[in-house]
Each structure stands twice: as structure tokens, then as C-alpha cells.
Design brief:
The protein is mostly helical and 234 residues long. It contains ten helices and two strands.
């Protein structure tokens, strides 16, 4: 795989081969389905030998698991880059925007990591649900660790919003799961091209309405979301 420089001359992709293999695997799964994901096809996509694929991954289930881990790793980076401010509701808005920015930057990884594509016999072992596991720290290094980390950032912000009196007192994990569900649904529709226009308005209105529904005052929720939008998503 090559990249094209600004002068139109192909540049060799100098990123680590493992990263290129993961992105190529995610693209094949998302665009063509599991039948397209073979060692020969994957090696061809990155200009390597089939032995390189076996060197980095023991088999297809391990490869698919690594794709999911990579997806959560990139999501964790986006979420971790959101600053912690004195306005926890604005922080929740920024986390939602970071979640969206990651999905838009890595649509193929996003589709695989959340089960948006069928994996058939190439699926990795099933994991426990993310929600409800973040606080306990359960899980080993891998999919469940990254998932719990990203969900945990959201839980912490929701708890701070409750402590500040902005949101009604409730289980922070339960509230975070509601927020995650709403934003994830929006992102899936956006990636599928279902918004012909006004996606930003839909998202911001949805976040304001969620905040109000969870106990925030309408004016305060709108101010916090405006502040979130004024900060570029990481």
C-alpha cells in the first residue's frame, strides 16, 4: 500500500507493518466481509509475504482480536486527550465529540470493534459487556481493558456532573451507558450516510436534550455544549 504525496508522487507507507496489516484487515472485513480476509489477500494489501502475517498474528481469530484491540486503543487515545475542566457537562460533550471524531477517522476499525460487520468463524472469543466492568477493573490486557478504560472516562465525568449538582443523582455507569448508547447510535447512522445534512445540529440538540433529561437546566446544558463545541475534538 502506498500513499500519494502532495506533488502526486507515490510515497512508500513507512508505518509499522503490523499497523498496516490491522488497518487492511479492518477495511477488508468492513467492505467485503470475512470471506475476503485471507492471509494471501491481507499480505497482498500491504505488499508483504504471508509469513509476515503469521509472524504478527497466530491465526485469524487472533488477528480479528488485534483489530478490535487497535480500535479501542485509538478510541482510548481520543478520549484521554479530552481535558478535564471545571464544567463536567461540557467535558461530557467533549467526550462525545471525541468519540465521534475517532469513529470518523477510523471507520473500518470502528465497524469491526463494535460488531458492525459479520465475522463468521473468524470471530475472537466472546467478551463480557463493557458497561458494569469499568469500576471493578476486571479483564486482562486487551479488548476488555481498552473498552473499560474508555467507558471509565465517561463514568468519571458523569459522576463529577452529579457531584456538581448538574445531573440528577443516579448510578454513573447507568447514566454513562445511556449517553454512550445515544452517541453510538448517532455515529453509526452518520457513518452509514443517513444524514444528508445538519448532522452537527442533530448531535448537539441530542446532547442538550440528554443533559436536560438527566437533570440539567436547559440553559446550563446549552451553554456547556456550546463550550464543548468551541474546543476542537482531539
Amino acid at each position: 500500500m502506498t500513499k500519494v504525496s502532495t506533488n502526486g508522487v507515490p510515497d512508500r507507507d513507512v508505518r509499522p507493518v503490523r499497523v498496516r496489516l490491522l488497518e487492511a484487515a479492518a477495511r477488508l472485513l468492513a467492505d467485503e466481509g470475512p470471506r475476503a480476509l485471507t492471509t494471501r489477500r491481507l499480505a497482498s494489501e500491504v505488499g508483504a509475504s504471508t509469513m509476515v502475517v503469521y509472524h504478527h498474528f497466530g491465526g485469524m481469530p487472533e488477528l480479528v482480536r488485534a483489530v478490535i484491540v487497535e480500535g479501542f486503543a485509538r478510541l482510548a487515545e481520543h478520549m484521554a486527550a479530552v481535558p478535564r475542566t471545571a464544567d463536567p457537562v461540557a467535558d461530557l460533550g467533549r467526550l462525545a465529540l471525541a468519540y465521534r471524531a475517532n469513529a470518523r477517522a477510523n471507520p473500518h476499525l470502528y465497524a469491526v470493534m463494535f460488531g458492525g460487520v459479520p465475522l463468521d468463524g473468524q470471530a475472537p472469543p466472546a467478551e463480557e459487556p463493557v458497561a458494569g466492568r469499568a469500576a471493578s477493573g476486571a479483564g486482562t490486557f486487551g479488548v476488555e481493558t481498552f473498552a473499560a478504560e474508555t467507558f471509565g472516562v465517561l463514568v468519571e465525568a458523569a459522576a463529577r456532573a452529579m457531584d456538581a449538582g448538574r445531573l440528577r443523582r443516579d448510578d454513573p455507569e447507568h447514566v454513562s451507558a445511556q449517553l454512550w448508547s445515544a452517541v453510538h447510535g448517532f455515529v453509526m447512522l452518520e457513518l452509514a450516510g443517513q444524514f444528508t445534512g445538519g448532522a452537527e445540529t442533530v448531535l448537539t440538540s441530542m446532547l442538550v436534550n440528554l443533559g436536560v433529561g438527566l437533570g440539567d437546566a436547559p440553559d446550563a446544558a446549552a451553554r456547556s455544549l456550546r463550550a464543548a463545541l468551541d474546543t476542537p475534538a482531539p
